[in-house]
């Protein structure tokens, strides 16, 4: 399933969300410019669970890793999710709170992966942990929203509207299932995806977003079509 858009327009221009998308794209272009030096760069600034410690140099990858990506497909997939779900969460939290929330979710997701796969030696990179936190907040704040989704049915594609809670719940359950398939603490990888970062980010987003939301605003219902 490929999400195309949601049914809730933002009331304010989501400049923080767009800036995050732009920053991720710029970081990826910088990666492409490194050529043969890219693997060593990823080894330093990617998050390696087996090497993680609480020193200054050990903590830096918690932040830097969430702005790095392994391929165009990795980048575009993450940015699509961020574009669809991030603007509404920014609208709900406010610009400054949303930026703080996004980074915090990325850190929490990284720590979840470090805890779950403590023996892993493959660098973890990507914004998907932070975006999972944004998705968790969206799941909580906009339960009546719908996601316009491209769904493959046999050899054809069909565009349908799926309730956001169903779309995100299915996505979340898939992360758990794939995470269990990789094992815990064994240092193995399944397709090079940090499944437990997704799970940890989503749960953290759900739990922390209400604490940051302004008390004088309430989530909007999805418009009727």
CA-to-CA gap between the ends? 22 Å
What is the N-to-C order of secondary-structure elements (H for helix, E for strand)?
Answer: EHHHHHHEEHH
Structural class: mainly alpha
Q: What does the overall shape look like? A: globular
Uncertain spans: 187-191
* The CATH C-level class name: Mainly Alpha
Q: Can you list the strand order of the major beta sheet?
A: 1-2-3
What's the CATH architecture name? Up-down Bundle
Which radius of gyration do the C-alpha atoms yield? 17 Å
Number of domains: 1
Largest sheet, if any?
3 strands, antiparallel
CATH topology descriptor = Rhomboid-like fold
- Helix share bin: 55-70%
Mean pLDDT: 89
Determine the number of helices (DSSP H or I, runs of at least 4 residues).
8
Percentage of residues in DSSP E strands:
5-15%
The CATH homologous superfamily:
Rhomboid-like
Can you walk me through this structure?
This protein has helices spanning 15-33, 38-45, 56-64, 72-93, 95-116, 128-141, 164-182, 195-212, and strands at residues 2-6, 146-153, 156-163. It is mainly α. The chain has one domain: Rhomboid-like (Rhomboid-like fold), CATH 1.20.1540.10. Residues 187-191 have low confidence and may be disordered.
Q: Layout of SSEs?
A:
Elements: E1 2-6, H1 15-33, H2 38-45, H3 56-64, H4 72-93, H5 95-116, H6 128-141, E2 146-153, E3 156-163, H7 164-182, H8 195-212
Antiparallel strand pairs: 1-2, 2-3
Helix pairs in contact: 1-4, 4-5, 4-6, 5-6, 5-8, 6-7, 6-8, 7-8
């Amino acid at each position: 399933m490929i999400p195309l858009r949601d049914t809730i327009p933002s009331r304010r221009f989501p400049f923080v969300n767009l800036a995050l998308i732009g920053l991720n794209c710029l970081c990826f272009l910088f990666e492409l410019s490194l050529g043969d030096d890219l693997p060593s760069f990823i080894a330093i600034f990617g998050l390696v669970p087996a090497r993680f410690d609480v020193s200054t140099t050990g903590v830096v990858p918690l932040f830097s890793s969430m702005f790095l990506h392994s391929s165009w497909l990795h980048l575009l997939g993450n940015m699509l999710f961020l574009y669809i779900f991030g603007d509404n969460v920014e609208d709900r939290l406010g610009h400054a709170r949303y930026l703080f929330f996004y980074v915090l979710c990325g850190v929490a997701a990284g720590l979840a992966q470090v805890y779950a796969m403590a023996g892993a030696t493959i660098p973890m990179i990507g914004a998907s942990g932070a975006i999972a936190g944004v998705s968790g907040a969206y799941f909580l704040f906009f339960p009546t929203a719908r996601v316009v989704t491209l769904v493959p049915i046999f050899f054809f594609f069909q565009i349908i509207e799926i309730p956001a809670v169903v779309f995100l719940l299915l996505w979340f359950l898939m992360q758990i299932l794939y995470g269990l398939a990789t094992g815990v603490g064994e240092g193995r990888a399944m397709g090079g995806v940090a499944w437990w970062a997704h799970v940890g980010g989503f749960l953290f987003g759900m739990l922390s977003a209400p604490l940051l939301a302004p008390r004088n605003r309430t989530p909007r219902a999805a418009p009727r079509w």
